Amino acid sequence: MNRMEFMAELERLLADMPEDERQAAVQYYADYFADAGEENEQDVIRELGSPEKVAESIKADYYGTEFNEANYEHKDYMEKYGQRSSGGTDSSRADSAAGTGQSGTGSKNSAGENVAGDAEKRKPWTSNTLKIILVIVIAVMLWPASLGIALAVLGIAAALIFFFAGLVIAAAAVMIAGGVTVIVGIVAAFAVPPVALVTAGIGLVLFVIGLIATVGTVKLCIIVYPAMLRGFVNLCRRPFYGKAV
Amino acid sequence: MVFNTGAALLDAIVLAVVSHEDEGTYGYKITQDVRRVIDVSESTLYPVLRRLQKDECLEVYDRQFDGRNRRYYKVTSRGMAQLGLYKSEWKTYIQKINEIFEGGVTA
């Protein structure tokens, strides 16, 4: 993986964040690569781990969710990172910092209680595993309905994909037909010149219309297919990341 | 290093590193400077910088460098106040630790 691929992947993974958040993060890492220099590119990529890990660290801080270091190769990440990601808002952190200062001057007991209280607070009330289990349970209970919905969604998706592919094929066919007409016209030119000229002319017009239509529909596909895919993926991700605030 | 660097300490270190540059400094340099002291991974600092920025402890501006815009970070007056608080907290903290390490248990 090179820097370009890394950045493209990171940008894609941050697609569901608000625009300014994504831009700030992308600019930061683009700067980072540029400042590290080309000769250190591979070192930086290795050290950063993967685009997934970087994206997760950004989102964890932004959404205040738990950053699960077990998913990534850096076992000691959380230790290095501190317990920031699940620590709640900044004001509460500032409070706890002040609280630590006071308890430091107070008795040892109160300091101990503080630590225990913090540990309880940090425990998230929900988790992705729980959500996945819930989704599975609901899917099983509503099995016939969910099967029907899944098939319907698949059917609509397939219909859309084939509809646009059909447009491309139709346009290409018009283009080919035009080309063939031109050739027929040229061949006939030796026998009946006027008719041949008309035939070749019509063929040329057809060919050009076909060409424009082909280019147009291919471009349409380029726009529509990724958008469909992204929409579908976002739909599936929504239950796990929640809506952007 | 066997000791953890907690969130507040990491904030304090980043603020201190940035405050050393009057003209402000940029992400890569901050990371290198912090990594000279503590062992953090390269992806650790962006969320810290972003949050300090949102808390108005840091401000950012873009400056031309090498034909591109580079984002610079600078400590605000609020950030300086926060850093002052961290420094005094740290002083009492290490004092107490030192007392225990060197002078045994104190009352």
In short:
Chain A contains 10 helices and no strands.
Describe this structure in words.
The complex is a heterodimer of chains A (245) and B (107). With 245 residues, chain A is mainly α. Chain A has three domains: 3-86, no CATH class; 90-125, no CATH class; 132-241. Chain A has helices at residues 3-13, 19-36, 41-48, 51-63, 77-81, 90-105, 108-122, 128-141, 143-188, 193-241. In chain A, α1 (3-13) runs antiparallel to α2 and α9 packs antiparallel against α10 (193-241). Chain A is flat and about 85 Å long. Chain B is of the alpha+beta class and 107 residues long. Chain B has a three-stranded antiparallel sheet with strand order 1-3-2. In chain B, a hairpin with a 2-residue loop joins β2 and β3 (68-75). The two termini of chain B are 30 Å apart. Chain B: This is PadR family transcriptional regulator. Chain B: Residues 14-83 form the Transcription regulator PadR N-terminal domain. Chain B: It holds the Pfam family PadR. Chain A: It comes from Mediterraneibacter catenae.
Question: Secondary structure elements and their pairing?
Answer:
The complex is a heterodimer of chains A (245) and B (107).
Chain A: H1 3-13, H2 19-36, H3 41-48, H4 51-63, H5 77-81, H6 90-105, H7 108-122, H8 128-141, H9 143-188, H10 193-241
Chain B: H1 7-19, E1 25-26, H2 27-37, H3 45-54, E2 58-65, E3 68-75, H4 77-103
Antiparallel strand pairs in B: 1-3, 2-3
